[in-house]
Amino acid sequence: MRVGVIGHQGYDELPEILRILFRVAPGISIEPLLEQGLHEVAGKGARLEDPQHLDALVTLGGDGTLLRGARFLDGRDIPILGVNLGRLGFLTSCQSDDFEPALKSLASGDYVAQPRMALTARAIDAEGVARKQWRALNDFVLHKGGFARVVRLNVFVDGESIGTYACDGVVISTPTGSTGYSLSAGGPVVVPTVESIIITPVSPHTLAVRSLVIPADAEVTVEAIESPTELLVTVDGQVGTSFVKGEKLKVRKADNPVRIVRFPGATFFEKMRVKLGWGGLPGSDRP
Question: What's this model's pTM, rounded to 2 decimal places?
Answer without folding.
Answer: 0.89
